[in-house]
Amino acid sequence: MAAKIVIDPVSRIEGHLKIEATVENGVVKEARSSGMMYRGLENILLGRDPRDAARIMQRVCGVCPTSHGLAAAFALDELYGVNGSITDNGRILRNLIQGANFVQSHILHFYQLAALDYVDVTAVADYSGSDPTLNKVRDFIGRGHLGPFVPRYEGDYRLTRDENRLAVAHYVEALNMRRLAHEAVAVFGGKMPHNMSIVAGGATAAPSLDKIASFLWKMEQLTDFIDSVYLPDVVMVAKRYSDYFGIGSGCRQFLSFGVFDMDSDPDLTKRQRYLPQGIVKGSELKLRRIDPGKITEEVESSWFAANGPVHPYDGQTVPDRDKAGAYSWVKSPRYDGEVMEVGPLARMLAAYVTGNKDVKTMVDGVLGTFNAGPEALFSVLGRHAARAIETKLVAERLKEWVLQLVPGEPTFTNFNLDVTSRGMGLHEAPRGALGHWVVAEGGKVKNYQAVVPTTWNAGPKDGKGQPGPIEQSLIGTRVKDQRNPFELVRIVRSYDPCLSCAVHVVTPAGEDLGRFVVGGK
Amino acid sequence: MANAETDRRGEACLALGDPWVAPTRAPILVMAVGNILRGDDGFAETVLAALEERGLPETVELFDAGTSAIDLMEIFDRRDRLIVIDAVRGGQSPGTLYRFSPEEVEAQALPMNSLHQVGLLETLRLGALVDCKPRETVVIGVQPQDTALGIGLSPAVAAAVEKAVQLVLKEIAS
After folding, report:
1. B152 to chain A: which residues are within 8 Å by CB?
2. 3.30.230.70, 1.10.3370.10, 1.10.645.10, 3.20.20.120: which CATH number matches A38-476?
3. pLDDT tens profile A401-426
4. Which residue of B has its CA nearest to A15?
């Protein structure tokens, strides 16, 4: 007997992702991941000054605008021919702005977006101790302010009462910490959200001693939080839910475009990046180089007019809402025709197999703690661990990199605006590989396409019938309680899905706010 | 509008004891919420740009929040008043202006009206947990006509810009 489980929306706070799983004898037989919104904002750039891309593309997303801005800047660097001449200050400033955003995003994901699947917030309801934070949360939920904490599934919460309370206190502390990380982004980003500092040719912020000191101080606070709260909490959750090292493995093929430039090699596939670019397949412990020509997008199961697997330079975004067999607004990106998972796990694997000592030490340490083999990395907890390890390593590097800035030295390389060329921006958002492609003629944009991380992870079936990574992670999963499908939401959220790349196309019925009308018609 | 200098204030974080930045902050924050790439959803940004031309007192800071409601907590910190400009679906004809407080809407349990209200209300609530909540919040909203892909306002909504500017000025003066 088959039953259908629908989770809609599955994302907490941001985005709109719908999951449909067909379950037979308690096991998922088929899974459909549907992005329930229409993207295609790239069309807006047609005919505009290409430099606008670094500002406008930030607006496509409320969660990772920084990454869209930087991916656009990389594409524009090539378009304007300055991809080989970004100054050290420009390169470092970009790394600092993006790196602080990674730290912010990962803390947000673990505490605000994922932890509540494991932590029982009701353990605070009868708290009678003296911790001011827990008292505040108790009063908060006592007033019926359940907003961020519900809806939730009931049943499988395994932490002890004290562990739950500790985690809830950390949930609140994490709000302060990601706020601090957000301020760190703004030190050199000028303004957040939607920073103004990252531009084609480098960055516009002038490094000064007070800014360097301010950034460093914030990072010291954040590394302290990461060491003493975030990493221990991930381990605490992993100990109680250790079966999740064996759940949600997925496609076991990983793609990273690499992030945090160490030089200004004009070829983004060769540029030295702190977290390297490449493909890692399964347990084969080696990194294959990326050939960007092998990246294609398919729309077999997407509500877009059919145009076969095409490279993003030739991509089109023409909606077709009535298309038969389609079930998602998300396209299906493929590399050499193959499904790829992107995100922190892909980046940590790429760094691990190229011998990054810090990554190796930490990954081996986590696996040792749980007496697990590398196999355990391909899992729900493997993704959470990779994200936490990355947060720690990036925060540590940021403290070193900020001291490499040289006040007074140039941050920006100038270029000629009248350009007929193309450019590719390969980059990593916190959620995974992000690519922007621009074609310009006579100084105006002729085509612009973006392939965003969640399309790689949450994309639907392709023309060969291969399900996307999230779909593959769900298929074969045993669901203990179909009314409370914890397994499925935990799998999906371990990918940190984010589809807030646009305002919803799905419009809730307008409620009558007539009584609040002001100023006449 | 927000530039590098005014945003230096955004760095200040008294609660966390940042020793590097002076803790000055404008008590009144006028914040524009919306995606400028979605037609009438860019209303707030247009109103903000118009307000910038009016020579506002130093007690007022204008902030373009764009689409990132979740990131706003820090911006709310240590404000006496928050004036939000947004596109709101309230069932009236396009260009109609609304004025309400989050409490009024919350009490009615209508969290899905604005295109961004969910994020905004949730952020305000979460902000209360870390003492980043303005003392008073009011939303000035416009009924959008068209939020399809594209930059620019529909005529009905464009006609409401000046009225909204006046409403915000009245809020600031009150």
Report:
1. none
2. 1.10.645.10
3. 999 999 999 999 999 999 999 999 99
4. B119
